[in-house]
Amino acid sequence: MLGLKESILAIELMHCASLIHDDLPAIDNDDFRRGKLTLHKKYGEGLALLTGDALQIMPFNILSNIENSDLAIKLIRILSDKAGVKGMIGGQILDISNIENFEQIYNIMALKTGALFEASFMMGGVIGQLEDKQIINLEEIGKNIGLLFQIFDDEKDKDSGEKANIFKYASQETINRLKTQLINSIILKMKENFDVEFFKRYKWLLINKLGFNGELFE
What we know:
Blueprint: H1 4-23, E1 32-33, E2 36-37, H2 39-43, H3 45-64, H4 69-83, H5 88-95, H6 102-112, H7 114-127, H8 132-156, H9 172-193, H10 196-208
Antiparallel strand pairs: 1-2
Helix pairs in contact: 1-3, 1-7, 3-4, 4-7, 5-6, 7-8, 8-9
């Protein structure tokens, strides 16, 4: 399918760039990523910064080489919007600010994590030639899945002491209610706007690739 491989690679490169920058001393100052030394610890801060910069530029070059220029422009527009100050980078800016309450951490999660999920879903919708209304719904589905993913990730690390962890700003009961709301919204939008096979495929993805509890989607 035209543009699919390029979009997958573009999203992955942008995500890798965000992780490299996130680990830098000026932001999270992490020594390890996925059990290995972070790039700045192994090769120095300067090289890590430049590597992250390079990885942020590469996705747009890759997408620009798609043979259908109209498709390429649409995909570039989505990724630049969701990775920029209105999305991922905006979330990173909030993350290095003083976090004082639940609303702030929710906004950080929606931008820093949710935005690239939104881009992934929207770009897939554009490639699949879905209607504009369906793509808008995919954007919302992507955001909610991104939020759920971050909540589950924070739950594993809730005792780590990291400031940007939702469990520092809300009770387990409040977070459980939020998870239920997000899941119900995902299911409703999937069932209202897409066919049964679409719902089944995404349900499989959520359970088998993102580790969601299958009982949540019954």
